[in-house]
Amino acid sequence: MLNFDEERFRSIQAGAMSLATPIRGAIDTLLDAGAENLHFLGAGGAGVLMLPAAQLLQRTSTFPTFLLQPAEMMAAGSVALHGGSIVVLPSLSGTTPETRDMLAYAQRHGAKVLTLTGHLDSPVAQQADFNFTNFAEDDTSSESFYLQSLVLALAVRAHRGELDDFDRTVAQLELLPHLLLEVKRTFEPRAAELARAFKDEPFHIITGAGGTWAQAWYYGTCILEEMQWIRTRPIHAADFFHGTLELVEPGVSVILFMGEDASRPLVQRVGAFAPDVTDKVTVLDAAEFDLPGIDPDVRALISPVVIATITERLSAHLEVVRDHPLTTRRYYRRRDY
Known about the structure:
Helix content: 40-55%
CATH architecture of the largest domain: 3-Layer(aba) Sandwich
Radius of gyration: 19 Å
CATH superfamily of the largest domain: Glucose-6-phosphate isomerase like protein, domain 1
Oligomer: single chain
Number of domains: 2
CATH topology of the largest domain: Rossmann fold
Shape: globular
Structural class: alpha/beta
Mean pLDDT: 97
Strand content: 5-15%
Number of strands: 9
């Protein structure tokens, strides 16, 4: 595979899953101590990657769960953030100024802060009440963060008696480091084909729903815009017909991220409309990939992981055909997550 270290990828995703037991232990400790709510407060793309876990809790647990912009919370405040709160902060570098500020802000308000980082010797890791470090880099961090936050959400449900098969689910998630490699290999030829097709596209509308909406926002904003300087319009599939459809005309690229959860019909509705208007419709469907040993209910949880792993292959080819390395930035030399 182009510009790809298979063993490095497998090791990083296995590292994410090796944190399942300690993450559950931390959640058990916090809930036993009387925690009353949970806030996912990551900055930028890392915060967006928390969306599927937050949605899972909001839809399947009575435990109050919030997903907010840390900068806005610090500016406006929240009566829900207090001494009974768990705050989850993801930061790959562990140095993001906004995340560091949020960590201090949360602790001043008495909250317990749990961080997910890629570097143990970083301020965010060192100052947290609970830290879980799994080394990763830009091209491997999405799957790692998705998996860690998913395990965290499952641990909350398990502790509260809202999930009976935590161990079964985690055992299946532990198969993913190998399975995702096979997904990448399967997608590699299409990734090269799509990169050639997208090479000169000036604009993409990208849509998803449920867990794949997080990846649609992330891929459009953090990869195509930030790392390739390509204009995008990420739009939730439920909102597509409330304005964005008017931008679709012949020659406009529309990319659909299709998951396997209950929100799938929302993306299918866009898929039924778009080909009648434009000849450039791309469907990336998590259901197309073989994942032996993964039950349907678990597949529904990992759709964003699958889409993240195939879009990484697309990015690897895109940077080559466009002669624009993913590390190139206009306004700053380094991205801190």
